[in-house]
């Protein structure tokens, strides 16, 4: 492990994890994490951002000298209760620059103000909105991180069951199982640098609210329980020591041909720290190559 990784892990543990562990006010926590993201993460050079609305869902367009007619639909993380497109925009700007695709990050509704399936409904509306704008499914790649990674996979499962196949999908540290049946939630609890496992039950209750009859196994929240007929290429990343590791590993049961990559002792959603971590930059470069390959293959086969 290099010294930069050690510093980032320490910062994640003593800042982000501490805030998540001891937070009592959700609005204050949201504001604090937003401010930290604005200070810590820097856009790739030549990045352009523009607010916009797709399919009735507000969001943020990110582009960096796009060289194709393709688009990436990327969902930010934050347990479905935190985060916003601006928090992930710097990381996504790197993917935009290296992949040549424009990116739309939806400002999907957050719980507890908007319990599940509000986020999924916004994700689907944004995808449909891209189709209305003239993009074909083979020109769209779906991505996300943490809860946003799970949301992207849930959207992918829904689309495939409707006979719609995007160009591909990728996710960093995806949250795929809100039934909490993965062993790493327990075995990695002491090693996790960012997420406090002891608050997950409380967070899930906020996400579900009172109206979700299917509960935690709802495939709109837990794509680990979904089916993926005739999937496109899928790439999933997770860290060996994070509590959500098994949420990624067990997706092999649903997506046997997926490219699953487990890295070493890094923080949850480490690509966010691309300004500091060589490992983060390597992951983003690899993912951008995956995106380009998906779009090229899909375009050839269309």
Summary, kept brief:
This protein is an alpha/beta fold and 302 residues long. The chain has nine helices and eight strands. Helices cover 40% and strands 15% of the residues.
Describe the protein in words:
The protein has a single domain, classed as 3-Layer(aba) Sandwich (Rossmann fold). The chain has nine helices and eight strands. The chain has helices at residues 3-22, 26-40, 85-99, 118-132, 147-161, 184-187, 200-208, 245-249, 278-301, and strands at 48-54, 57-63, 71-75, 102-106, 140-145, 168-172, 234-239, 259-263. The protein has an eight-stranded mixed β-sheet with strand order 1-2-4-3-5-6-7-8, with helices on both faces. Helix 3 (85-99) packs across helix 9 (278-301) and helix 4 (118-132) packs across helix 5 (147-161).
Q: What is the CA-CA span between the terminal residues?
A: 43 Å
The number of helical runs is 9
- How big is the Rg? 17 Å
Question: What's the CATH first level?
Answer: Alpha Beta
Strand content: 15-25%
Strand order of the largest sheet: 1-2-4-3-5-6-7-8
Shape: globular
Please count the beta strands (DSSP E, at least 2 residues each): 8
Number of domains: 1
List the uncertain runs: none
What is the H level of CATH, i.e. the homologous superfamily? Alpha/Beta hydrolase fold, catalytic domain
CATH topology group? Rossmann fold
What is the architecture at the second tier of CATH?
3-Layer(aba) Sandwich
Helix content: 40-55%
| SSE order, one letter for each helix or strand | HHEEEHEHEHEHHEHEH
Mean pLDDT: 91
Q: Which structural class should the secondary elements be placed in?
A: alpha/beta
| Biggest sheet details | 8 strands, mixed
